[in-house]
Amino acid sequence: MRTETSPTEFLRIAAHTAEHFGFKTVESLSKDPACKNCATSLPHTISDDDRHLDAVSGLLTGGLARYCDERLHAFPGPVLLYSIESQPNSNETAVAFHIFNVQKSIAEAILIQTSRALANELGYNEHTVRINSLGDSDSITRYGRELTNFLRKRLDLMPESSRELMKQHSLLALQDLVTLEHDLAYKSPNPLEYLSDQSRKHFRDIIEYLDMSDTPYEIDSKMLGHHEYYSDALFAIDLPKLESGLDNPLHIRGGRFDAFVERKTKKKTSATGAVAILRERPAPARTPRFKLDTPTVSIIQLGFGPKIRSLMIIDELRKAGVSVYQDLANDSLSAQLRDAEARGVKHVVIIGQKEFVDGTVILRDMEARKQEPIPHDQLVKKLKRGTVAA
């Protein structure tokens, strides 16, 4: 396990990982032909005070403000945005990933897979995904009511700091109890028991992705976020302590915040994000530059299982040094095929429900106009033998 990572190396690896999974910078997105209608910024009421709510140095909130101010809301489909956060006067170096306009759980799956890939590339191979869900607004309201009743009956057992926070919201009091490792924190109601049907399905889909991808994970019902910010899933990548016994300098955390976006913009927008922070590592004076190879492969999928399989293949191709185009949030097979044609890729990998069940993929040679089904575990080898990775 690596124990030392320079900020320059961190930013280089983070940017390369982000680009491979389809994330783009504001500069790249603004040049995209799909941004032809990006003429007017999205009004919002995001303030500096809001930056204290996301628990990741305000970087999720900053990304949302950038999304609004840079007119990215005008994109007709999903927006995968990443930004390098390297303020010279800060003692932290960070990268923030955002996915907008994707309501389904594939957004969380992409963020978790990207975060895990980053951790692996930095040498932190032993890690666990910790995950919880507060649910949608109805779920949070129902859970908050039950939690309030539970804590009010035990006010005399609570520390003074928690009692004071009860005056604002019971979830804030619970967060304080969790931080203090107080016994009441572990006896309090479980938020997962109060999820709405929609939120329960959303969370179940994320768990199914974790199971299908053999991701080590832990459901932690006491992993909480500010009730005015987060909704539905929250997650973190837990890394082991260093050999010295100190905490790992890499901190990765994310979640969904749809309700916060609607409250601040008066517009319904699905939003998820994750932030990777390298603590106690001042940012370099210059952000490192890199060039990702122009992809010659497109991944096309249709259905939940095929999306997850595609995500796994994208990660395998990353490890093999093969760049790809993908649009995992797209549910239209024809639209994905048209996009592959327009990009002029040499090969297209197609995964439908039949291929998912059979453990195969369809590999289409776009120049020879031929295609063949092959076992998915032979795809990387076959592509590496050809000219795709060249």
Secondary-structure element order, as H and E?
Answer: HHHEEHEHHHHHEEEHEEHEHEHEEH
Count all strands and give the number.
12
The DSSP helix count reads 14
Named CATH architecture of the largest domain: 2-Layer Sandwich
Which fold name is given in CATH as the topology of the largest domain?
A: BirA Bifunctional Protein, domain 2
CATH class of the largest domain: Alpha Beta
Kindly report how far apart the N and C termini lie: 30 Å
Beta fraction of the residues? 15-25%
Structural class category? alpha+beta
> Unreliable runs, pLDDT <50, ≥5 residues?
none
Query: Over all CA atoms, what is the radius of gyration?
Result: 22 Å
CATH superfamily of the largest domain: Bira Bifunctional Protein, Domain 2
Mean pLDDT: 90
Helix content, binned percent: 25-40%
Which sequence of strands runs across the widest sheet?
A: 1-2-7-6-5-3-4
Major β-sheet, in short? 7 strands, mixed
Shape: globular
Number of domains: 3
In short:
With 390 residues, this protein is an alpha+beta fold.
Q: Overview of this structure, please?
A:
This protein is an alpha+beta fold and 390 residues long. The chain folds into three domains: 7-135 and 196-279, BirA Bifunctional Protein, domain 2 (2-Layer Sandwich); 137-192, no CATH class; 297-385, Anticodon-binding domain (Rossmann fold, 3-Layer(aba) Sandwich). Helices cover 38% and strands 18% of the residues. It contains 14 helices and twelve strands. The strands form two sheets. The chain has a seven-stranded mixed sheet, with helices on both faces. It has a five-stranded mixed sheet with strand order 9-8-10-11-12, sandwiched between helices. α1 (7-20) packs antiparallel against α4 (106-121) and α4 packs parallel to α11. It starts with 6 loop residues before the first helix and ends in a 5-residue tail after the last helix. The model has no long low-confidence stretch (mean pLDDT 90).
